[in-house]
Design brief:
The protein is of the alpha+beta class. Helix content is 25%, strand content 33%.
């Protein structure tokens, strides 16, 4: 096992013990650093204060989950002008207050940005990383622009319901990769114009029939081609067909009813009942 994990952890950590369990591996690490930089002022300090224990989940080994029990050092900040008196070292293996190591977090974000969070949960679970969809979504939001999909020249725009009937926004997708590019707060023209102003290389926009989106694209990207999506093309076709039928057909059509005869199902000699001829009037909607 020592050969397998050689180089798996930074040199500043010494492996105190390795336990292999049915649910995965557990590593006990001890920091051997002699100094650390203060996260507030950036000054390097070598005066140690105490130790702090941390737990974090790391990348799996051979498909099995890995849990790190880390003993980190705490240092005094000798900068008299700094507001921090004591701080915990940060050697890159784990972020402050994070339950995952930095490399594990980077890998999970790389998977989640290409598929939905629920699909990413299943993929990561198969590889030995257990995480919830809500946690992945919060991690993506915290990462911000670093993990947004690249923007192509052809985009699709539609309104998005954060909470149906109350809060709406605008969702923007790449027409070629079908990736979600951005989600804007609000579905008015001003919000979309600000976003389009920073993406002048877009040459095609697929949108619904909302006048706000149409005016925003025309004002910011007058050379861009605007097209309707398939749903609204079908809806426009049905409305045009309805108006055409109204122009050729009269508003009122009289439909006469033929004499109705009840079928003879009884014994021979049963009388046939006839109904009087009537005419009905139907009005086209």
């Amino acid at each position: 096992m020592d050969k397998i994990v050689e180089g798996f952890f930074p040199e500043t950590y010494r492996i105190l013990g390795i336990r292999e369990k049915t649910e995965g591996y557990e590593f006990n690490l001890l920091s051997t650093s002699s100094s650390a930089c203060c996260p507030q002022c950036g000054l390097s300090n070598s005066r140690a204060h105490s130790f702090q224990e941390r737990s974090a989940r790391d990348l799996p080994i051979l498909g099995k989950p890995v849990l790190l029990e880390i003993i980190q050092k705490r240092y005094f900040c000798d900068n008299k002008n700094c507001e921090t008196d004591i701080f915990t070292e940060r050697n890159g293996i784990i972020n402050h207050y994070s339950q995952f190591t930095t490399r594990c977090r980077e890998y999970m974000l790389a998977v989640a940005v290409h598929v939905s969070c629920e699909a990413a949960v299943k993929i990561l679970a198969y590889q030995g990383i257990r995480v919830s969809g809500d946690t992945l979504l919060n991690m993506l939001k915290a990462a911000g622009n670093d993990y947004k999909s690249e923007i192509g020249k052809k985009i699709g725009i539609d309104d998005w319901a954060f909470r149906r009937g109350q809060t709406y926004g605008t969702i923007i997708c790449d027409l070629e990769t079908h990736d979600i590019i951005d989600v804007l707060k609000g579905r008015d023209a001003e919000t979309l114009e600000k976003w389009l102003g920073g993406h002048q290389d877009i040459d095609m926009v697929s949108r619904d029939r909302a006048s706000a989106y149409a005016s925003a694209v025309s004002n910011v990207l007058p050379e861009a081609v605007q097209i309707a999506d398939r749903f609204h093309i079908t809806k426009n076709l049905l409305e045009a067909l309805k108006e055409t039928m109204k122009s050729f057909m009269p508003e009122v059509i009289e439909v006469p009813n033929d004499e109705a005869v009840e079928p003879v199902t009884g014994k021979p000699g049963t009388r046939i009942k006839k109904t009087p001829k009537r005419s009905s009037v139907k009005k086209l909607k």
